Molybdopterin molybdenumtransferase
Amino acid sequence: MSAPEDWASARRTVHAAGWRAQLPPVAVPLADADGLTLAAPLAPVTDLPAFPTASVDGFALRGRGPWRVHGQVLAGSVPAPLAADGTGVEIATGAMVPEGTEAILRVEHATRSGDLVDGTPKSEREWRVPGEEAHAGEPLLPVGTPVTPGVIGLAASCGLDALQVRPAPRAAMLIFGDELLTAGPPADGRIRDSLGPSIPAYLRRLGVTCENPVAPIQDTLGAHVAALRAALDGGADLICTTGGTMHGPVDHLHPALAELGAQYVVNTVAVRPGFPMLVAAVPHGGRTRFVAGLPGNPQSAVVALVSLVIPLLAGLTGRPEPVLPRVTLGEPVPGRGDFTHLALVRVDPVDGLARPVSHVGSAMLRGLAGARGFAVIPPGATGRAGDAVELVEVP
Ligand SMILES: Nc1nc2c(c(=O)[nH]1)N[C@H]1C(S)=C(S)[C@@H](COP(=O)(O)OP(=O)(O)OC[C@H]3O[C@@H](n4cnc5c(N)ncnc54)[C@H](O)[C@@H]3O)O[C@H]1N2
Ligand code: MOO
């Protein structure tokens, strides 16, 4: 077995490997772009607003009052200029302001008799001027920005119909372990596969297109290699496997990777739980694909997902390496010697402090199901109440 790699540096290594293999950009209609990643800066086609735009309902006026009002300007039309002092038009919020306008008088500040209007307009301008929000071509959001509903709305207001984005990575999910049942209660030495139903759900939350898992795959080297080949031929950018990361009698992942000509990006990480996790790169079909080997112990598999798969996906989609938020511990959390300890915590909604949860054995999911994420206790350290530590959130 190779020496385990430091947890933080393993994250940097997989991000860099994903970055080098970034998925080629595509143009995607706005309505389909949520969750993808900008591959070009977002910039407006015109000034924003594109024309002087009334902010209130009232009267657009020229010169001194009282003003003779002739006609109406509604949003969506091009008005004639105000040609003479002492004249005006009724104007609606959102309408283009006529050339020659010197003030807009709000309807609630106006007195009207017949076609004459009088009142005192506010001293501040009651319309938006072109370029007030942005100028044509001005970069508003950089490459690597995750597309959110807010970004989609901004893009539409900028006059864009599509966005240049990195597409969603495609994942396949392979479950190893002859002891696994896909339905019914555990019994007679057999247990339920808890990762086949849950890891694809996490992946989808991470913006990945994930097929239904292939489960369980027979505990033979031939079946492992065949399943990995089928996933590569199916076009997967990322293949997540569970189990078989160690070197027990039926752990075939390492020999299967060797047979495929895969190169380790990271092979075992100095973290508890989860240390036999790995990421390997496989050249296939003219580009690099990745295999993420998640350990079989269920909590360890999720640790591997948040530790390695999330930074790998960030790299693949052209996003920066994830920056971890910090939380303050409300109780002590022990360290794990030379290893990083990822300790499941919940974050109290009232005092905002992170406290360890119970039932956190690496074979258990009970603690994980109610936890916000993993507090990171670095090698050689111990978490004391009041310490601000990094938090890896569970997706
Ligand atoms: N001699 C040693 N043995 C083990 C060590 C060690 O250091 N020396 N480390 C343990 C650790 S830590 C982990 S984690 C596991 C990792 O093992 P594998 O990735 O090879 O996983 P398996 O042996 O296939 O399974 C381990 C465990 O998890 C259960 N399992 C597997 N898949 C699923 C699934 N989809 N759903 C639910 N449970 C699953 C499986 O039945 C085993 O109980 O190795 C330790 N051993
Ligand atoms: O590292 Mo194992 O993943 O402790 O259960």
In short: The chain has seven helices and 26 strands. The first helix runs from residue 7 to 20. The mean pLDDT is 97.
